[in-house]
Amino acid sequence: MSEKNPIRIFVSHAFAEDEDYARVFEYFESRDRFFYQNCSNPDNVPAGGGMEGRKEELLKQIKAAEVMVLPVAMNRKHTTLSSYQMDAAKANQVPILGIKEFGGNAVDPPEVEKFAEQIVEWNDRIIAEAILLLARQEETVQWDVVEFTLD
Q1: Is the CB of residue 105 less than 8 Å from the CB of residue 142?
Q2: Please, which residues have CB within 8 angstroms of residue 144's CB and are 6 or more apart in sequence?
Q3: In the chain, what are the domain boundaries?
Q4: What does the pLDDT read at residue 48?
Q5: Does residue 123 sit in helix, strand or coil?
Q6: Per-residue exposure over 53-91, b if at least 16 CB sit within 10 Å of its own CB, e if not
Q7: Which range among 66-80, 98-112, 115-129 shows the weakest confidence by mean pLDDT?
Q8: Arithmetic mean of pLDDT, 16-34
Q9: Per-residue model confidence (pLDDT) at position 49
Q10: What is the pLDDT of residues 41-65, one digit of tens each?
Q11: Which fold has domain 7-136?
Q12: ∠ at Cα 63 (60, 66), nearest 5°?
């Protein structure tokens, strides 16, 4: 992953503004040297296409990605579109990273557990590492450092 070769990411959406969708990108931007290309475009609502037009547009966006990121709350709010996106990702060999509900202790939906290769907490380092592993099969060598003093 580099500026010249960013990871192509599709973040699940329902063609509407969503706080978890925006939060994902806030987390991406908080990481140094995390280069990505956003393949998702919730503003590109097909004119007059109804549900079939939306599904075609989602499929196009998913096919362009190396990994799909699915905030679990998206699955709870928009079950039909979320299920379609997971099916489309699996059919096109796009791995799925689930992100647990923000600030909650809710149990992950069984469908997400079934389709997602990995489900992580809202932590920028963990999300970035999981994306790199799922998209490029690259493991990072980052370590958490805990400093303390002995008294």
Answers
A1: no
A2: none
A3: 7-136
A4: 74
A5: coil
A6: ebbebbbebbebbbbbbbbbbbbeebeebbebbbebbee
A7: 98-112
A8: 89
A9: 67
A10: 999 888 876 888 899 999 999 999 9
A11: Rossmann fold (3.40.50)
A12: 140
Sheet holding 118-120, edge to edge: 36-38, 7-11, 67-71, 96-99, 118-120
User: What is the average per-residue pLDDT within 77-88?
Assistant: 91
Q: Per the structure block, which two tokens stand in for 24?
A: 């994902």
Tokens for 89, please give them: 């990702």
Please state the pTM of the whole predicted model. Answer: 0.85
Q: What is the pLDDT of residues 2-20, one digit of tens each?
A: 788 899 999 999 998 888 9
Rounded to a whole number of angstroms, the CA Rg of the chain reads 16
pLDDT at 106 over 70: no
Least Cα distance to 82 among 112, 61, 60 occurs for: 112
Long-range pairs, 55-60, Cβ under 8 A, ≥24? 55/84, 55/88, 58/84, 58/85, 58/88, 59/88, 59/92
- Residues forming a β-bridge with 36: 7
What SS3 state is found at 11?
A: strand
Q: Please state the length of the chain.
A: 151
- Is the distance from CB of 65 to CB of 8 less than 8 angstroms? yes
